[in-house]
Specification:
It is a single chain. By secondary structure, this protein is of the alpha/beta class. The protein is 45% helix and 13% strand. The protein folds into 3 domains: 80 residues; 309 residues, Glycogen Phosphorylase B (Rossmann fold), CATH 3.40.50.2000; 201 residues, Glycogen Phosphorylase B (Rossmann fold), CATH 3.40.50.2000. It binds pyridoxal-5'-phosphate (PLP).
């Protein structure tokens, strides 16, 4: 793919150098390539560190808010100009390097072109268009596709208020806020194109925005346009907000509108990848277009199936959207008519038991029926998913259900702390530009001197402790806390203590408060003056998930209890920035889901980039990652029929591990103060996890086992 041409800053007079430096900075800021380039981030920070922080690291807002003096200074600041030139050169090199995909497919017939649909994309904290792991995975997928040069466009929605902003009240209760983002100050572009689609009896218009993610483009649909009536303008106000009707309308926009947006842009994908069931109406739009062009329905279904890939992401029932017959009729009677089927037949496409008139329409079932290639997101999740949907496929054994798996991965450079880069350059020699999915620089981790890695762990832990204290002070200020609370926040945590992190959505199956089951035993572990241990939590629950919010409140109470104050903290507003700080600063990453509910989990793949160690239930990706020497297993993978029994045993196993293995190993130091055994585990964790659980490996697998076969068969 050719280098992307950047139009200059619109509406600005282009006279002289001042404008040109400014425009060059803005052009750099509008290519989200900078989100995984530490030098570009350092450049934006250097423009004005306070603004950079105040804008959630948004280069466009930072540039626009610069004072007049600073603005003028910039054009003459030799350090800024030199850094800008280096960044531009690095970016040109990135675009010019032939990607792995180009090398792989030189001189093959018509080219593969993938459209990747997702309800959420997490690209950076300045674009809060995500709720958690699903969005992070989608963002990392786009970035890895760019690195590998895979021809792929993303399709999603642009939410005026994003997910929600989380604050905690003085009693620890969640306070939900919906800021309204100005899209023109995000690092995206208005394509000035609109589509118009049927929404039941009405017409819905949506504007198409473009986020440039390196070589990958992401198109986002926004209904907040003047031509829509007020209620429809609000359709894309919130991610996972509103009621069932909002949800069905948003999903029509994503699936059906997404296909129409691709047409409007003149794009002709050969493969459609549905990231979770939210986008499944895509198949109905494609069926309808094929039938309109004269294809018999059976033939149209065959074509759609061959060219559609579907990834399912959760065994939790609430994760699968279901819509009642009345709602479906309201929005799909026209489509049924066009396809030449009855409303009931259309409903059956989304039913596990066709003909069961009580069964609602399930988006996952629709996607399973109309995609030819389907997968779960870890080996264990593949098994769980085959059992779960056996009825859809009418086969005798779960093993015969045609659902495979591609284990998730993370975009390494997005999650890598810049402090690590010199060590990487010296010992691992990563090839960030032009690498393929099999390139695994972490295989060389054995070359890293343990003392050097340990020194960096101390740097990163200290950075995290400072970050957490600053956030805690701000939290106390916002709540108008007492002076005593403020002092506690300033003095919370210990930069040398063994630090455990837990940060993810506070969905109840993830059991965030499990470690508090026996508070006295936990307090003994944490408050040992010679071998202190501390816990840092962050996480958001869905605004309607009362159970998840109660978890946040419970952890808040423990963090503010006399017994655990200063050793347990809870940070508000878990986002990609908090995530990066935690996965780089924590020594141990804690993961306590109720097996087998964690489809994959990806947060645990990020600490090993910095020598962090996982302590996890054998669920999701961990059965594939764990090798006895690179982390720990809680509970040995047993599933107990009784929930109470399960929680009790898992908590006990966790305490035992901490008391007998983890804490002693961390504090067993040699004469130079280095924990030798711990350092060995850190290196083993890095060596065995980072390459295998990278997004490059993951996207490579999708290309070889899903996209290319679908492209050939279509
Ligand atoms: C990596 C990441 C996740 C994924 O968390 P899991 O529960 O492990 O799947 C969620 N949110 C953010 C912000 C992340 O960075």
């Amino acid at each position: 793919m050719a280098a992307v041409r950047q139009p200059g800053g619109r509406g600005r007079r282009s006279a002289g150098r001042i404008t040109s430096v400014f425009d060059r900075l803005e052009a750099l800021g509008r290519d989200l390539w900078w989100t995984w380039n530490p030098e570009a981030q350092a450049l934006f920070a250097a423009l004005d560190p306070v603004l950079w922080r105040a804008t959630q690291h948004n280069p466009i807002r930072t540039l626009r808010s610069l004072s007049a003096e600073r603005h003028d200074e910039l054009a003459h600041d030799p350090a800024i100009l030199a850094a800008l030139r280096r960044c531009e050169a690095a970016r040109s090199e990135y675009y010019a390097a032939p990607g792995w995909f180009a090398r792989r497919t030189a001189a093959r017939g018509r080219e593969l072109f993938v459209a990747y649909f997702s309800a959420e994309f997490a690209l950076h904290e300045c674009m809060p268009q995500y709720s958690g792991g699903l969005g992070v995975l989608a963002g990392d997928h786009l970035k890895a596709a760019s690195d590998l040069g895979v021809p792929l466009v993303g399709v999603g929605l642009l939410y005026r208020s994003g997910y929600y902003r989380q604050r905690l009240g003085a009693d620890g209760r969640t306070i939900v806020a919906y800021p309204r983002y100005d899209f023109h100050s995000l690092p995206i572009r208005d394509t000035a194109r609109e589509i118009s689609l049927d929404l039941g009896a009405r017409q819905l218009r949506a504007r198409i925005w473009l986020a440039q993610v390196g070589r990958t483009r992401l198109y986002l649909l926004d209904t907040d346009v003047p031509a829509n009536p007020p209620a429809l303008r609000e359709l894309t106000a919130q991610l996972y907000g509103g009621n069932e009707e909002t949800r069905v309308r948003q999903e029509i926009l994503l699936g059906m509108g997404g296909v129409q947006a691709l047409h409007a842009l003149g794009l002709r994908p050969t493969v459609y990848h549905l990231n979770e069931g939210h986008a499944a109406f895509c198949v109905l739009q494609r069926l309808r277009e094929l039938v309109r062009r004269g294809a018999p329905l059976a033939k149209a279904q065959e074509i759609v199936r061959r060219s559609t890939v579907f990834t399912t992401h959760t065994p939790v029932p609430a994760g699968h959207d279901r819509f009642g017959a009345r709602l479906m009729k309201r929005y799909f009677s026209g489509v049924a008519g066009e396809l030449g089927v009855s409303a009931a037949e259309l409903m059956d496409l989304g039913r596990e038991r066709p003909g069961d008139r009580k069964e609602p329409f399930c988006m996952t079932v629709l996607a399973l029926r109309l995609s030819g290639r389907r997968n779960g997101v870890a080996e264990l999740h593949g098994q769980t998913t085959r059992r779960m949907w056996q009825s859809v496929f009418n086969v005798a054994r779960a093993a015969d259900v045609p659902i495979g798996h591609v284990t998730n991965g993370v975009h390494s450079r997005t999650w890598l702390a810049p402090e690590m880069e010199p060590l990487y350059r010296r010992y691992l020699k990563p090839r960030w530009v032009g690498a393929g999915p099999e390139d695994d620089c972490w295989r060389r981790a054995g070359r890293i001197p343990p003392a050097e890695l340990w020194a960096l762990r101390n740097v990163l832990r200290r950075r995290l402790v400072n970050f957490a204290r600053q956030r805690l002070v701000e939290q106390v200020q916002r709540r108008m806390g007492t002076l005593e609370e403020r002092l506690a926040a300033e003095g919370a945590l210990d930069e040398n203590a063994l630090t455990l992190g837990f940060a993810r959505r506070f969905a109840t199956y993830k059991r965030a408060p499990l470690i508090f089951r026996d508070v006295r035993r936990l307090a003994r572990i944490l408050c040992d003056a010679r071998r202190p241990v501390q816990l840092i939590f962050a996480g958001k629950a869905h605004p309607k998930d009362e159970g998840g919010q109660a978890f946040a409140q419970l952890i808040f109470q423990h963090a503010n209890s006399d017994r655990l104050r200063g050793r347990v903290v809870l940070l508000e507003e878990y986002d990609m920035e908090v995530g990066r700080m935690l996965v780089s600063g924590c020594d141990v990453w804690l993961n306590t889901p109720l097996r087998p509910h964690e489809a994959s989990g990806t947060s645990g793949m990020k600490p090993p980039l910095h020598g962090g160690l996982n302590c996890s239930i054998l669920d999701g990706w961990w059965p594939e990652g764990y090798n006895r020497r690179n982390g720990w297993v809680i509970g040995g993978g047993r599933e107990w029929p009784d929930r109470e029994e399960q929680d009790r045993r898992d908590a006990e196993s966790l305490y035992d591990l901490l008391e007998r293995r983890i804490v002693p190993l961390f504090y067993a130091r040699d004469r130079a103060g280095v924990p030798r055994g711990w350092a060995q585990r850190m290196i083993e964790s890095m060596r065995t996890i980072c390459g295998r659980f990278s997004a490059a490996r993951m996207v490579g697998e999708y290309v070889k086992d899903y996209y290319e076969p679908a492209h050939r068969d279509r």
